[in-house]
Design a protein that fits this description.
The chain is built from nine helices and nine strands. It has 302 residues and is α/β, with parallel strands linked by helices. The chain folds into two domains: 167 residues, P-loop containing nucleotide triphosphate hydrolases (Rossmann fold, 3-Layer(aba) Sandwich), CATH 3.40.50; 105 residues, K homology (KH) domain (GMP Synthetase, Chain A, domain 3, 2-Layer Sandwich), CATH 3.30.300.20. It has a six-stranded mixed sheet with strand order 2-3-1-4-5-6, with helices on both faces. Strands 7-8-9 form a three-stranded mixed sheet. Helix 6 crosses helix 8. The longest helix is centred in the C-terminal third of the chain and has 18 residues. It is globular and about 55 Å long. The termini are far apart.
């Protein structure tokens, strides 16, 4: 049997649906999904099997105009993921069309190397009428030579199977890169931290958009089959600590319960989750934090 394997980079603007598409392709939740933009920090890899092909998805941070060091690291990671992949999928939102951000991405696609196939996936097709969709597809294909165009709804699953089948056939002949039953190459410590960070973002909304991070400090496998997980939530100001804790600790309890329940579902066993909030004013400028998120720490502009 001829096997195929390779890397597929999903790129696009923040909130275009990349994480939702990754989770749909893989069939499990491996990437943080919220209504906030720029929530995917690291290049999370999800592994999907399609026939004799193994697709390794690189879910890159959304491409946007960088302002801070963290922004620059995220944008560099996104383009790095595209440049390292065998196939690239540009995801755009049908209801937003060709925005300034998409314009910048189209310009950047010319610089990721010759011969790499780039597919276009127009997402959220249920939000626009067919003539608008066809007009958008025609206009964007005139701007860049996409190998294929797919109309999809990542949330509902429409068109996703066709995209996955096409991708499977485009990968190079190769032995599989991961065990067949492995769905993500992130350490479980980071997946657990991402789950807690997602719950914090969902609960806090605009109060603390990106000025917090979560680190799994300790993971203890117990004899009774349960796991004790200790996590630190880093914030940059004392006032932020109070927001995360909430009145009489209500917010942190709610976040802990939601994160624990999702972890238990993911792991298939009981979890004891303990969260602690610490003020760390300069975590956005610490190289160690970037390394933990799979990002490159550097000065200057991208």
């Amino acid at each position: 049997m001829t096997t195929r394997a390779g890397f597929v980079a999903l790129i696009g603007e923040p909130n275009a649906g990349k994480s939702t598409l990754l989770n749909r392709m893989v069939g499990a939740k491996v990437s943080i999904v919220t209504h906030k933009v720029q929530t995917t920090r690291a290049r999370i890899r999800g592994v999907a099997m399609e026939g004799a092909s193994q697709l390794v998805f690189v879910d890159t941070p959304g491409l946007f105009q960088p302002r801070r060091r963290l922004d620059r690291a995220m944008v560099a990671a996104a383009w790095g993921g595209a440049a390292d992949a065998d196939v690239v999928v540009l995801l755009i939102e049908a209801n937003r069309g060709i925005t300034e951000g998409v314009e910048r991405i189209l310009e950047g696609l010319d610089g990721i190397g010759e011969g790499r196939k780039v597919a276009l996936a127009i997402n959220k097709i249920d939000r626009v009428e067919a003539p608008v969709l066809l007009g958008l597809s025609k206009e964007i294909n005139e701007r860049f030579p996409f190998a294929e165009t797919f109309m999809i709804s990542a949330e509902r699953g429409h068109g996703v199977d066709a995209l996955r089948t096409w991708l499977a056939g485009e990968l190079p002949e190769s032995p599989w890169l991961y065990p067949e039953d492995q769905i993500a190459d992130l350490p479980m410590r980071m997946i657990a931290a991402e789950m807690t960070r997602e719950k914090l973002i969902l609960r806090l909304h605009q109060e603390l958009p990106y000025q917090l991070t979560v680190e799994t400090e300790n993971w203890e496998e117990r004899k009774d089959g349960t796991a004790r997980i200790d996590q630190l939530i880093y914030v940059i100001r004392d006032g932020h600590k109070g927001i995360v804790l909430g009145h009489k600790g209500e917010t942190i309890k709610s976040v802990s319960k939601a994160a624990r329940e999702e972890l238990e579902e993911f792991l298939g066993r009981k979890v004891h989750l303990f969260l602690q909030v610490k003020v760390r004013p300069n975590w956005l400028d610490e190289a160690e934090r970037y390394t933990e998120m799979g990002l490159e720490f550097k000065d200057g502009n991208v």
